[in-house]
Amino acid sequence: EMKAGDKHTLRYIVDEKDTAEHIGSGGLPVYATPAMICLMEKTAYESAATAGHQTVGTKVEISHLRACKTGTEVVSVAELLEVEGRRLTFKVSVSDSDGVLGEGTHERFIIDPERFMKKLG
Question: What pTM does this model have?
Answer without folding.
Answer: 0.96
